[in-house]
Design brief:
- The complex is a heterodimer of chains A (283) and B (274).
- Chain A has 283 residues and is mainly alpha-helical.
- Chain A has 15 helices and no strands.
- In chain A, α3 crosses α15 and α4 runs parallel beside α9.
- The longest helix of chain B is centred in the C-terminal third of the chain and has 35 residues.
- Chain B has 274 residues and is mostly helical.
- Chain B is globular.
- The chains are: A mainly alpha (283), B mainly alpha (274).
Chain lengths: 283, 274
């Protein structure tokens, strides 16, 4: 208290806001150097390596039959994952944001669990649940459906690791919106379905889009979980990230980096679009 | 009068959601734990306490802690730059922070391994100074620092932005030096957010696989991380051994998850008071 009382008598010191240019140039350079060295250099190196043998070599990487089938599998798995996780995500977000029930925080934590599980452990969990040695996997195999070491297993592992994204993004947004609009629609005679389709969904469309973009980006780039359950059968269970590993281990560096550059461009573009969607949702 | 729950359909929506979460997430993870629980004590000891497993646990936990600590300091620093100053390239720096999350881990892995490898652009320079990164524990730490970095920045950034500049100004007006303001005012207020970012980066690093396996060289006892040891056990068809190691990793993740939740609750409470 004494210090506060004495302060006005002293010559006022410059405030933080009045001296914004005292440190910045050096401080910003240090920060930029760290981020540049840690992140930008490896990122740029992907594209340098991809085009090191010329544009022709870059293009020829995509002629290979195994690479093409890997691209096709990645697109199929990402599409299946997107459909399933979007359906679940919308349902979960609606449930969490529009109803009161005990244990809501626990449910949200349970949905988020895959985010903190190692991708390798996720792959192992799916393998143990639906592999040929498990009762369920054995039953499926007797009915002609091979899951582990086949495309369905890859899809399941990918769904597991990207499970929370749509639910999280949409639930966060809808919770902030409250339920006044829905209650108004219902009181005016709309059914729950009509309320959902005409009020909740249009309202949350950008948050939903953001979650879907993020889910798709992660699905296409997933490596660890898919690696465990794929069995690495070329032309059958190799996704793009797995094909990158195969090419790299065969010393086909130009092709490995060409495929890496293409995949990185897609996932980075999806992430940027997702940031844009999130920005629109917040407006 | 409106009923306590005005929107119908709660039982159906909640029931379906719970069923899906249970089948898709909880059952598969429970099977991992049950597979490990079905082992004899002797087999469990062999799986978890072999010299190879212990070396992998030491490396994974040690390198993850070191990487998360570096991220906590550097990430908070970059968050502070982004919040307190406007400069040319501000938006670019902000966007680059997200790159480690957007880049597929296999791409990060081969990029780091090539760049820091014996013939890589940076590897050659470092080798001339006697520093080897690729195929060493240093390489593991580098990859983990890369993947964990965004978690700290994105944890600290919003807290710092919500921190009223008045606190710092008041300290400055009262005669505190810039350093004293940082140490006595800003850092204590930021500590929970930094810890949350540290814990998130640590959780990610403990389970990280793709970005590490290419640069680490995967030498048992020296550069073999825990997730890779799980993959190795699976390739030997030792499902129980893999499940035992995976359960330890899962328990570590859950412990961290609880810590992060507690920290975030404190953060929200602190913001409520501000």
């Amino acid at each position: 208290m004494i210090a506060v009382a004495a302060a006005p008598a002293r010559r006022p010191r410059p405030t933080v806001r009045n001296r914004p240019n005292a440190v910045p140039a050096v401080a910003i350079a240090i920060g930029a150097l760290f981020v540049g060295g840690l992140i930008v250099v490896p990122l740029v190196s992907v594209f340098i390596e991809a085009f090191s043998a010329g544009a022709g070599a870059f293009a020829s990487a995509f002629v290979d039959g195994y690479t093409r089938s890997a691209i096709a599998l990645t697109l199929e798995v990402a599409a299946a994952t997107l459909v399933c996780n979007t359906l679940f995500g919308v349902l979960a977000a609606w449930t969490i944001s529009k109803y009161r029930f005990p244990g809501k925080a626990l449910l949200q934590s349970a949905i988020d669990v895959p985010l903190s599980v190692s991708p390798v452990v996720a792959g192992l969990a799916i393998l143990l649940a639906v592999g040929v040695h498990s009762p369920f996997g054995g039953w499926l195999l007797r009915h002609g459906l091979r899951v582990a070491f086949a495309p369905p297993g890859i899809a399941l592992a990918t769904m597991f690791v990207t499970f929370p994204y749509v639910a999280r993004e949409l639930a966060t947004f809808l919770q902030e919106q409250g339920r006044d609009l829905e209650e108004a629609a219902l009181s005016m005679g709309a059914s729950v379905w009509q309320t959902f389709w005409r009020v909740t969904l249009p309202n949350g469309r950008y948050a939903l889009l953001g979650g879907m973009l993020l889910c798709n980006a992660r699905a296409m780039g997933e490596f660890g979980a898919v690696s465990v359950i794929s069995g690495h059968i070329r032309g059958y269970t190799n996704t793009v990230p797995l094909q990158i590993e195969v090419l790299y281990n065969e010393d086909a560096f130009a092709a490995a980096f060409a495929l890496s550059a293409a995949l990185a461009l897609v996932t980075i573009a999806l992430s940027l679009l997702r940031n844009l969607a999130e920005h629109r949702a917040r407006r | 009068m409106r009923s306590r729950d005005a929107i119908p359909g709660r039982a159906l929506a909640l029931g379906t959601t719970l069923t899906i979460v249970t089948l898709a997430v909880l059952v598969p993870l429970a099977i991992v734990g049950l597979t490990a629980a079905g082992m004899t004590g002797q087999r469990l000891t062999a799986a978890l306490l072999s010299a190879r497993a212990l070396a992998a646990f030491r490396l994974t936990f040690g390198a993850s802690f070191a990487a998360a600590a570096i991220d906590a300091v550097a990430g908070s620093y970059v968050a502070w730059l982004l919040v307190r100053y406007r400069f040319g390239g501000h938006a670019l720096l902000d966007a680059i922070v997200d790159v480690p999350l957007a880049l597929p881990t296999a791409v990060t892995g081969i990029a780091l391994a090539t760049l820091y490898g014996p013939n890589g652009a940076l590897g050659k320079i470092l080798a001339a100074h006697g520093v080897a990164v690729a195929y060493t524990q240093l390489g593991v730490g580098l990859a983990l620092t890369f993947v964990g970095f965004p978690f700290v920045v994105r944890s600290v950034q919003p807290v710092l932005a919500a921190l009223p500049a008045e606190f710092e100004e008041a300290a400055a007006v009262l005669g505190a030096s810039r350093l004293a303001t940082l140490a006595r005012v800003t850092l204590p207020l930021l500590l929970p957010a930094m810890l949350a970012g540290f814990a998130l980066a640590l959780a990610r690093a403990l389970g990280e696989y793709g970005s590490v396996v290419f640069i680490s060289g995967n030498m048992p006892l020296r550069t073999e991380i825990v997730p890779l040891l799980i993959v190795t056990r699976l390739e030997e068809y030792d499902y129980q051994g893999a499940a035992a190691i995976a359960t330890v990793l899962l328990l570590a993740s859950f412990a961290l998850l609880l810590a992060i939740n507690a920290l975030q609750r404190r953060l929200i409470a602190a913001r409520g008071r501000a």
